[in-house]
Amino acid sequence: MTAVVVVVIVMEVVLLVVKVMAVVIVMVVVMLLGKMVMVMVMMMVLVTGRSGRSPDRPVYRESTV
What we know:
Helix content is 88%, strand content 0%. With 65 residues, the protein is mainly α. The chain has one domain (2-64). The longest helix has 49 residues, at 2-50. The radius of gyration is 24 Å and the shape is rod-shaped. The mean pLDDT is 83.
């Protein structure tokens, strides 16, 4: 019977670790995506600032803001 209890405890611990890992991974992914989006917005603003005479660029700037 003790073996069964140990297995159950191990299963619970593994599930807990998996949940924590999943939360951490999601947080890291969200942070990375946020950084990527910020970099993309910065690039778009730089592009629109440099070549703002082309008609299609200001539309992108308005959509991001």
